[in-house]
Amino acid sequence: MFQKLIKKANVDVEERTFSVSYYKTRTTNGASRYSAEVVFHPSDHMIVDADSVNGLEAKLACLVHASFYSRMLVETGTAT
Fold first, then answer.
1. What's CA 55's distance to the chain center, in Å?
2. Nearest to residue 37, comparing CAs of 56, 51, 52?
3. I need a surface site. Which of 14, 23, 39, 51 has the fewest CB within 10 A?
4. Nearest-angstrom CA–CA distance, 68 and 71
5. CB burial class (10 A; 0-12, 13-18, 19+) of residue 59?
6. Residue of 43, 52, 45, 46 whose CA lies nearest to 25
7. Number of Cβ within a 10 Å radius of residue 77
8. DSSP string spanning the chain?
9. 69, 33, 38: which is closest to 50 by C-alpha?
């Protein structure tokens, strides 16, 4: 299975911008699956899968913010 890049975008959180790449993949039965890769840092990526690009965008609207804030807590040492 090969992934095809279909879209690139940026997500802004707290005056920081993160790159998002959207991919389309065909499954073995011919169905389409979509994934998005968010780059927080060159060595820190998050990949999210969904059945549609709209579904990915909806998931990312919540997950990118939550992931950013959880990473901030870990970096500052305030997470318990």
1. 12
2. 56
3. 14
4. 5
5. middle
6. 52
7. 7
8. --EEEEEEEEEEETTEEEEEEEEEEE-TTS-EEEEEEEEEETTEEEEEEESSHHHHHHHHHHHHHHHHHHHHHHHHT---
9. 33
**Whats the size of the chain, residue-wise?**
80
User: Token pair for residue 26?
Assistant: 């065909």
Q: What is the full per-residue pLDDT of the chain (80 aa) written as tens digits? A: 689 999 999 999 888 899 999 999 998 898 999 999 999 989 999 999 999 999 999 999 889 989 988 888 877 766 55
**pLDDT in the model for residue 1:** 62
**Two tokens at 47?**
């990949």
The reported pTM is 0.82
